[in-house]
UniProtKB/TrEMBL annotation:
Native species: Lynx pardinus (Iberian lynx)
SUPFAM superfamilies, per the entry: ARM repeat (SSF48371)
Keyword check for Nucleotide-binding: no
InterPro entries: ARM-like (IPR011989), ARM-type_fold (IPR016024), SYO1-like (IPR052616), TPR_SYO1 (IPR057990)
Bias (Basic residues) ranges: 1-11
Name of the molecule in the record: HEAT repeat-containing protein 3
Single Gene Ontology BP annotation: ribosomal large subunit biogenesis
GO molecular function, one term: unfolded protein binding
Family per record: Belongs to the nuclear import and ribosome assembly adapter family.
Region (Disordered): 1-37
């Protein structure tokens, strides 16, 4: 029903312990609904002993990962009871309380986060963030030993609190409003400015900033020149480790969100700086990095085991006596007693680096999609862009000019299209659409701690396909490499699709690749570029896709049939294929449970049988007119009865348009049938 639109990507909620439901299932606790542990833990939050309170918070941090436990925690007012502990006299209690709220906000979803705002979690949370900020300042003058110990604790607390803030702001517009009113921007930017000494805290801040700066004009007015320079420093950091790559990518996304306040003379340099970062991120072969990191971990663990064995032999397995140590049964090792480590799974350096890179690449692709979804172009507002080294020093004189005349939002003008090409963005996105490195997938699949990376690699492929859809829809054919490049791309997508015998089972992949194919075939048809999918391939895709539970997939395959059918209708010798397409679309239009899919199928029928001798003959032979006449009142009734309750105003507007076009098309088919049968 018209041109397909690419969805904007919202930042995903972060779960510090991985998939919450999977965690519960793994622990055998899925389906349990016992308030006993919750009641006992919540009671201990009031205990006079800080160690007991810390232990209770750590227990709640684990408990909230079990989805069935959430209603019981809500009934017992867990948020109001945990909130005051964010300001507990004990730093350890503050950290574990923040960790419990972090897990709760990550695992609970939108309803839980909104309820947390209703129960005024933002008041102690903002107070904690302010105290941490002040504490970091005061520590600058402390003796070295005390400074290091306190700063680490305070920064750890700030990191947990920032994740709570990010999760809540992601889910609640009220939380974002409080963020604006309480002046949280200054606080979090102070944390970000410490990126050189605590990149983990800076990454948490960058995630939060990317969330709160999206569609938030009130906050944009708070960005002063010094604030923008903090972003500049982080974005242009020369450090190239994986966590810094992730940080710079997130900050680039934030800077893109600030496009409305960028002075005119700086816009060209800024877009170049953003695209340079995204290009460099996508340049990295993630599969090879995963393989290297996994091998490095294997070697490190092997060396550590050998060293431990030598030490045990030398010491005769005698353990150190220390009140702060406890023995791990059957291991012969010692560790510090701690509850903090219970909040997060143990994550080794190599795994962290691999996750950071994959996350950065996913973020980069999402930023590109969001750039493609900007407002309507206004070409005159752009200075000439180039891929020169200007992007390395783009803000020396630019962000300080924020008081000057500002332009309307940046958008994908001809110059931006050129910048995409100069930085090889289409080529790098094309490369990311390939299936993940099979060796990397195999290595990760055989390791419990690395297994989640397989899903991350698959997600990158899907994001790249969505990115490809956006670029194909927006860029000129020349910027995409010309007609030959589009044909090569079509062959590549077909090979991706049909190399997987069970592609219909992978819904995310099927939605992404069908969206990309839809946009590509539409562009090729509009430019009269010959298409390369055979009728058999086409029907295989559509037959599998139309039975998918995902409405987007069904809409895509129906649209693909309409695009291909409208091309075939103008060619000779296509009668049988057109009849097959017509019967398929007619069945979808009359039987699909979704009015959106049915409307798309009708739209496709209009396109296929609008013109051409073969199309006219096919329409008569499949009795298209009588079928549509019979369905016309049914479709009208369905819109009236189901429309307002199930569909958005925009969808209803499109459906009304389809209903009107159906009446016109029936009249046209009556003239066709009369002419061919007399």
């Amino acid at each position: 029903m018209g041109k397909s639109r690419t969805k904007r990507f919202k930042r995903p909620q972060f779960s510090p312990t991985g998939d919450c439901q999977a965690e519960a299932a793994a622990n055998g606790t899925e389906g349990e609904e016992d308030d006993g542990p919750a009641a006992e833990l919540l009671e201990k939050l009031q205990h006079p002993s800080a160690e007991v309170r810390e232990c209770a918070c750590a227990g709640l941090a684990r408990l909230v990962q079990q989805r069935p436990a959430l209603p019981g925690l809500a009934r017992r007012d867990a948020v109001r009871r945990l909130g005051p502990l964010l300001l507990d006299p004990s730093l350890a209690v503050r950290e574990t309380a923040a960790g419990a709220l972090r897990n709760l906000s990550a695992c609970g979803g939108f309803e839980v986060c909104d309820d947390m705002v209703t129960k005024d979690i933002m008041t102690p949370l903002v107070a904690l963030l302010k105290e941490c900020s002040a504490g970091l300042d005061s520590n600058e003058m402390s003796p070295q030993e005390k400074k290091d110990q306190n700063r680490n604790s305070i920064e750890n607390i700030a990191n947990e609190a920032m994740n709570v803030l990010w999760n809540i702001c992601e889910c609640s517009s009220r939380a974002v409003s409080i963020f604006n009113k309480e002046g949280c921007l200054e606080i979090v930017l102070k944390y970000l400015s410490r990126f050189s000494t605590n990149v983990d805290l800076a990454i948490s801040v960058a995630y939060c900033l990317q969330t709160v700066t999206e569609d938030n004009p009130e906050l944009l007015n708070s960005f002063t020149a010094p604030a923008l320079h903090v972003l500049e420093s982080a974005m242009l950091s020369p450090v190239s480790s994986m966590d810094y790559i992730q940080l710079k990518t997130l900050v680039a996304g934030t800077v893109w969100n600030l496009k409305d306040i960028i002075p005119s003379k700086s816009q060209a340099e800024i877009i170049n700086a953003i695209l340079k970062i995204l290009s460099e991120v996508l340049e990295v072969d993630a599969g090879e990095i995963v393989i290297q990191m996994k091998e490095a971990e294997t070697q490190r663990l092997k060396a550590a085991a050998e060293t431990e064995e030598i030490r045990e032999n030398a010491n005769g397995d005698h353990l150190i006596e220390d009140d702060e140590m406890e023995e791990i049964p059957h291991k012969g090792k010692v560790r510090r007693k701690t509850f903090i480590s219970d909040l997060l799974p143990p994550t080794d350096k190599e795994l962290r680096e691999a996750i950071a890179l994959l996350t950065a690449q996913q973020t980069a692709l999402e930023i590109i999609v969001n750039m493609c979804c900007s407002e309507d172009p206004s070409d005159d507002e752009w200075e000439e862009l180039s891929s020169s080294d200007e992007s390395d020093a783009f803000m020396e004189n630019s962000f300080s000019e924020c008081g000057g005349q500002l332009l309307s939002p940046l958008c994908l003008s001809h110059e931006v299209h050129t910048a995409f090409t100069n930085y090889l963005i289409p080529k790098k996105i094309f490369e990311k659409t390939a299936f993940p490195n099979s060796i990397a997938v195999d290595l990760c699949s055989r390791s419990p701690t690395w297994k989640s990376l397989v899903r991350k690699m698959n997600t990158i492929q899907c994001r790249a396909l969505v990115c490809l859809q956006s670029l194909v829809s927006l860029l000129d054919v020349d910027h995409l490499g010309g007609a030959a490049a589009l044909q090569t791309l079509a062959q590549h997508l077909s090979q991706l699709l049909f190399s997987q015998p069970d592609f219909a089972k992978h819904v995310d992949f099927l939605e992404a690749i069908s969206s990309a194919l839809r946009a590509l075939l539409q562009t090729m048809a509009s430019k009269n570029i010959s298409q390369c999918m055979t009728p058999d391939q086409l029907m295989t895709l559509c037959t599998a896709g139309i039975h998918c539970s995902n409405t987007g997939v069904r809409v895509n395959v129906v649209s693909i049939l309409g695009i291909t059918g409208s091309v075939l209708a103008k060619e000779d010798g296509t009668l049988e294929t057109l009849k097959t397409i017509g019967c398929f679309l007619l069945e979808v239009a009359t039987k699909d449970s979704s009015l959106v899919v049915a409307g798309e199928a009708l739209d496709a029928l209009f396109d296929v049988f609008a013109d051409g001798k073969e199309a006219e003959r096919a329409s008569v032979q499949i009795k298209l007119l009588s079928a549509l006449k019979e369905f016309q009142p049914v479709f009208k009734t369905k819109i009236r009865k189901e429309g307002r309750g199930k569909y958005s105003p925009d969808q209803l507007c499109v459906l009304d348009n389809v209903k009107m076009n159906l009446r016109r098309f029936v009249a046209y088919q009556e003239t066709v049938e009369k002419r061919l049968t007399t």
